[in-house]
Amino acid sequence: MKRLIPAVLLMMMGTVAGAQKITLSTNILEWMELGTMNVEASVAAARHISVGAGVKWNPWTYKAGDPETQAQNRQLVLNAGMRYWPWHIFSGWWMGAKGQYATYNIGGIWSRETEEGDAFGLGFGGGYTLLLTSALNLDFGIGAWTGTRTWIRYSCPRCGQVLENGSGLFVLPNELLVSLVYVF
Predict the structure, then answer these.
(1) Which long-range contacts link 66-69 to residues 24+ away (Cβ below 8 Å)?
(2) pTM recorded for the entire structure
(3) Three-state SS sequence of the chain
């Protein structure tokens, strides 16, 4: 009996570990957003559930030093969440939720005004994952997020003249996904 229980536990752990799938993905559209680097890792947690975490980072300032043309979309975004897959894990339709934190400095793109701040909230989304090969998928999706944020708005990217600051609730589009997904 002493040997039977550990043997059964080891067999169960081996079955669960062998059945797990892990994915790494990157959103192609984020790369086109002034070079925002991004990666997300997910693991199958149950038959219809995957859990994952991701990071987006953009440290770039374009035409730095020139107050008339300087632009940036600097950001660091961390998220963790889950997806529900009605049919098969990592394929077909999905819907998901995640917690997300962002620190950002965006300005000089559409106007000279610049905003920097921090945001924390919950994101919700859905989409479809298309199987390309046994190890490569293409992920399409859209999402929104809501939460609280604090911000400071400046009149230009370098001048430091404060136009407004504050904190409050927000509801914003979160992401548009066209991701390349590698399945291990």
Answers:
(1) 67/156, 67/157, 67/158, 67/159, 69/108
(2) 0.85
(3) CCCHHHHHHHHHHHHHHHHCCEEEEEEHHHHCCCCCEEEEEEEECCCCEEEEEEEEEECCEECCCCCCCCEEEEEEEEEEEEEECCCECCEEEEEEEEEEEEEEEEECCCCCCEEEEEEEEEEEEEEEEEECCCCEEEEEEEEEEEEEEEEEEECCCCCCCEEEEEEEEEEEEEEEEEEEEEEC
What is the Cα–Cα distance from 134 to 151, expressed in whole angstroms? Answer: 44
Q: What is the pLDDT of residues 26-55, one digit of tens each?
A: 999 999 999 999 999 999 999 999 999 999
> Which residues of the chain fall short of a pLDDT of 50?
8-9, 12-19
Render pLDDT for 105-121 as a digit per residue (tens, 0 to 9). 999 888 889 999 999 99
Inter-residue contact 43 to 51 (CB < 8 Å): yes
